[in-house]
Amino acid sequence: MSPWGTHTAQSRALALDPWISQVTTGVTARLEEFFAEKHGHARELSPRAPELISAVEDLTMRGGKRLRPLAIYAGFRAANPHVSEFDWQAILTLGAAIELLQSYLLIQDDWMDDDDQRRGGPSTHVAMAQKFGDRRLGASLAILAGDVAMGFAVELLHATQFPPRRTYEALRSFNDMHMEVVFGQQLDLLAHEDVSLTQNLKTGSYTVRGPITLGALLADASQAQLTALMKFAQPLGVAFQLRDDLLSMFGDPAKTGKPAGHDLREGKHTALVAEARRLLSASDRACLDAVLGDRSASADAVQAAMSMLEYSGARARVEAKLASRLSEAQSALAEARCLDAQGVEMLMELIDRTALRNS
Hints:
The protein is an all-alpha fold. It has one domain (about 5-355): Farnesyl Diphosphate Synthase. The protein contains 16 helices and two strands. The chain has helices at about 5-45, 50-60, 65-80, 85-115, 125-130, 135-160, 165-190, 195-220, 225-250, 255, 260-265, 270-280, 280-290, 300-310, 315-335, 340-355; strands at about 115-120, 120. Strands 1-2 form a two-stranded antiparallel sheet. α3 (about 65-80) packs across α8 (about 195-220) and α15 packs antiparallel against α16 (about 340-355). The protein is globular and about 60 Å long. The two termini are about 15 Å apart. About 45% of the residues are buried. The model is unreliable at about 1-15 (pLDDT under 50).
């Protein structure tokens, strides 16, 4: 339930749903237009080049909640309530850039984690392997498709016309966001003991902080507004990942698209696992570690490990941390007198769609 209560959340949704639909459909249309243009150019370069573009297009257009474009728009509106047609087109272009950045990151992440599924279909390296009948070739082509997606993201970023004095800041912000995700992924692969640092870099940076910052810079936000937005975005980014951990472990598979306990078999060192390993006895910890990363673990073994996350108190602690981060984000908005009121309402809706989602 939303921290503002069911009635408030429902009333807000009725008022704000149009902007959500407009952003998501607008960014989708911008991406469709962009891919059509790129297919034409690619055919002029190489007869096989469209295959890589199609791989990126398939993943990008297959689904996704378009949360990052929504964060861009909410960040813009919080800093500037007046959106001209020029601004609107810039928001859609920047939103498309962020979606392509995500595609690049997902393609790499799926290959590194050896995940077969993404957004209800085969991950890019699996789709390529199936198409060409060669697992190694499929992985190599997927990496190239990721390179294409990143190149497209940068191209659209440069096509977004920021206020002149903000252009350098925007480019630096985009680069910082990218590098933070890379370093966060490095820590994730190494099972770094500081899970919160890993999550803050890997997910919080490009899911919440980066898009909101870029939207605010597009709106030519004041320094006070940027500071207020970061006080909101920082805890919300943490909350997003904590919610993701809980959903991956305990969510409804029909909604999440992942089997219960998925992260255990994948060997992901999430906040839940970190808390459990700290709280469990040595013998129980050994049982949990035996399942962690074992893709052949039986359903009973996974269920037993999930039970340990419950009775150890790990789940309750992560849920408490999530509630605390949401409270921080809410308080930051309540204190932000320099932000536009309707933009603040949009940021509140963003809380519902990131940290209180069920899929």
